[in-house]
Design a protein that fits this description.
By secondary structure, the protein is an alpha/beta fold. It is built from 5 helices and 7 strands, in the order βαβαββαβαββα. The strands form 2 sheets. A 5-stranded parallel sheet has the order 1-6-5-2-4. It has a two-stranded antiparallel sheet with strand order 3-7. Residues about 1-5 and about 155-165 have low confidence and may be disordered.
């Protein structure tokens, strides 16, 4: 997954390191799994920071032709991509890096051992399509004119994690 330390993207992060980077406002989390995965398995949750939901590929394996357009408004900020196990997010990270983005990949993704859920990081069930639209709009609004994520006083402390699906 890491291409032997020579990743054609900014690098791989453990789930905990990804949470820290998103929670402190230094990057935007983008979940690139499918709609079915979001609905039936659960989604990452970071208080004070919207998670962007846009599929890299569909359940049939075909690539999402609107993926780049969906994240284009976030080009000025570092992105942290997450998928089920860390494989699709690598492919998406490589493509976005080639398009001029700064992108990190979450090792072990959302579900694999060592991933987001297994690490006890906050997550929830009950994802809806409205979540995707609202969170993307919120994420875009957080990007200031200088290309940085706006500071948010609601950014959570590391020990304030919620570890169960709510």
């Amino acid at each position: 997954m890491n291409y032997d330390g020579d990743a054609p993207y900014a690098g791989d992060l453990t789930a905990s390191a990804a949470w820290d980077k998103v929670a402190d406002g230094s990057a935007q989390l983008v979940d690139v799994r499918t709609e079915g995965e979001w609905q039936h398995i659960g989604v990452p949750k970071v208080s004070g920071a919207p998670v962007v939901f846009t599929s890299w590929s569909f359940a049939d394996g075909s690539l999402n032709p609107s993926f780049l357009g969906d994240v284009r408004p976030l080009r000025a900020v570092p992105l942290v991509l997450i998928c089920r196990s860390g494989r699709r997010s690598v492919d998406a990270a490589v493509a976005l890096t080639r398009a001029g983005f700064t992108v990190f990949n979450v090792l072990d993704g959302f579900e694999a051992p060592g991933g987001w859920r297994a690490s006890g990081l906050p997550w929830r069930t009950g994802w809806t399509r409205e979540d995707a639209a609202e969170n993307l709009a919120d994420a875009i609004a957080r990007v200031d004119a200088g290309g940085a994520l706006a500071a948010d006083s609601a950014t959570p402390a590391r020990d304030a994690r919620e570890t169960s699906a709510q």
